[in-house]
Amino acid sequence: MDLIRILLSILLPPLGVFMQVGFGKHFWINIILTLLGYFPGVIHAVWVIAKY
Fold first, then answer.
1. Which of 1, 8, 30, 37 has its CA 20 to 30 A from that of 21?
2. Is the pTM here over 0.85, yes or no?
């Protein structure tokens, strides 16, 4: 299941984070990072999925 989340995180980083942790602080941090730049959002999403 983590492989699917990582693939979704590469396409839409907030979606992968949402599937992992829901509407928590990591989701909102990822939204901000994705708006500031796509790659920081992807890196954060993969980190959240790997950690949780």
1. 37
2. yes
Give the domain extent around 23: 2-51
pLDDT tens per residue across all 52 residues of the chain: 889 999 999 999 999 999 999 999 999 999 999 999 999 999 999 999 999 9
What is the rounded distance in angstroms from the CA atom of residue 36 to the CA atom of residue 16? 18
* DSSP type of residue 23: S
Q: Domain tally for the chain?
A: 1
